User: What shape does this take?
Amino acid sequence: MENRPRAPRINCALDATMTVIEGKWKAAILCKLHVKGVLRFNQLMKELEIVSPRILTKQLRDMEADGLILRTVKAEVPVCVEYSISSKGETLIPALKLLAEWGTDYVMQRMIVFDDSILLPEKTIN
Assistant: This one.
């Protein structure tokens, strides 16, 4: 697997944003933590269902490094690790909501196929 640099192009603000949220599970993780609050690793695994532990761990580490989530280790036996959305992560929620709305519209437009001939008045033959 190729190790790409995570630094965004400095001339593109959108690229900077996408560099931080790219990844199949990052948006879902942010949304789950926003809605559900503090979750343990296994709870996140159950919420996301099909993500592998290895991929979830990598995504969580990246998000913690970018300041989007907080990782809290509780001094218990066994050790308890909890994740929550950070204030920086919360600032992405409105943008994620807009992306979700766009995605819903995009999907719905492609699911409904109209037969234009039904909408056009029939031509009269003279």
